[in-house]
Write a structure and sequence with these properties.
single chain, 122 residues, alpha+beta, Glutaredoxin, five-stranded mixed sheet, 3 helices, 5 strands, 19% strand, binds FE2/S2 (inorganic) cluster
């Protein structure tokens, strides 16, 4: 039991270092290989990392994933808490999305192909 408590403490320490608990946006991006060739996907991933770093904010969290099961018109992205699914997240389109996220505007219509309310009640 003490071993489990120690594991939980280590997990909590790791989460705290990542500022989990004060996040406002979580952006997932698929780097392929089916929706986009790996090189293009990685370029978008690196660009997203740079954009978030420039924000110098603990509110944005990013996660690179291997597949979001859409597998076309990538890089595919998913943003919480909006529940917005986006296609073609090139570096240029990531700039557009970040602009919207910073101002609180809704996502660019031409990039969003699905919305999920994730159980939120209207
Ligand atoms: S490989 Fe990107 S969504 Fe499946």
């Amino acid at each position: 039991m003490a071993h489990l408590e120690k594991d939980i403490e280590q997990l909590q320490f790791s989460a705290e270092k990542l500022k989990i608990g004060s996040l406002k946006k979580h952006i997932f991006i698929c780097t392929g290989p089916k929706c986009v060739v790996g090189e293009e996907g990685l370029k978008s991933w690196e660009h997203l990392k740079d954009c978030i770093k420039k924000e110098n904010s603990n509110e944005f969290f990013r996660t690179k994933v291997g597949c979001l099961r859409i597998c076309q018109k990538g890089p595919i992205g998913l943003i919480y808490p909006e529940g917005a699914w986006l296609h073609t997240l090139t570096p240029e389109n990531i700039d557009r999305v970040m602009g919207h996220l910073k101002t609180g505007e809704s996502m660019p219509d031409d990039l969003v192909f699905a919305m999920d309310s994730l159980g939120k009640k209207d």
